[in-house]
Write a structure and sequence with these properties.
The protein has a single domain, classed as Methylpurine-DNA glycosylase (MPG) (3-methyladenine DNA Glycosylase, Chain A, Roll), CATH 3.10.300. About 10% of the residues lie in helices and about 30% in strands. The chain has helices at about 10, 15-25, 120-125, and strands at about 5, 25-30, 35-45, 75-80, 85-90, 100-105, 140-145, 155, 175. The N and C termini lie far apart (about 45 Å).
Length: about 190
């Protein structure tokens, strides 16, 4: 039997860049009434707070973004296009407005749909707006380390779908495990850019 260690609060109380790298290979576990859904994180995007024009917190504190300004280790879940849920892990320090978007999972337990993309990931895990602000140190929805991810190379690439964010659109703040087939989009450098 695999031993899974739930990630402690201190794991999340770090800057979003460090947290983004360290989330790769960890498990997301959603204990539901009739099943347990588990996936390994293989792709993430870091959002660096109010100065980051792609971050929701660039508009300041709002009812929607209050969770991102809250304590680290909570879920910031939002709806995009009126139909897809996306889940972020709030980073530290509290009040920084930083978080890491979960973009893709490798299924560990049997999941009902694909997991490559933030909307599909949430659908597969059964994460909705009900989990907005959820404490990820709880026993229902949490992150854990099972030590099984092994060694892997991390690829840095621009985030996806943030063209409106001016100079922040091209910053390499998306990270994924090289060669993992569950990644949502493999980075291909623009011609002349290395």
């Amino acid at each position: 039997m695999t031993v899974r260690s739930k990630l402690p609060r201190a794991f999340y109380d770090r800057d979003a860049l460090t947290l983004a790298h360290d989330l790769l290979g960890k498990l997301v576990i959603h204990e539901r009434p009739n099943d347990t859904r588990i996936g390994r994180i293989v792709e993430v995007e870091a959002y660096l707070g109010p100065q980051d024009l792609a971050a929701h917190t660039s508009k300041g504190r709002t009812p929607r973004t209050r969770a991102m300004f809250g304590p680290p280790g909570h879920a910031y879940v939002y709806l995009v296009y009126g139909m897809h849920h996306c889940m972020n892990v709030v980073a530290g320090p509290q009040g920084s407005g930083t978080a890491v978007l979960l973009r893709a999972l490798e299924p560990v337990s049997e999941l009902p749909c694909a997991t490559n993309g933030p909307g599909r990931l949430c659908k597969a895990l059964g994460v909705t707006l009900e989990q907005y602000g959820h404490d990820l140190c709880s026993d229902e929805l949490y992150l854990a380390d099972d030590g099984a991810a092994g060694n892997f190379e991390i690829i840095s690439a621009p985030r996806i779908g943030v063209d409106y964010a001016q100079e922040w659109a091209d910053k390499p703040l998306r990270f994924y495990i090289q060669g993992n087939r569950h990644v949502s989009k493999v980075y291909k450098a623009k011609s002349g850019v290395h």
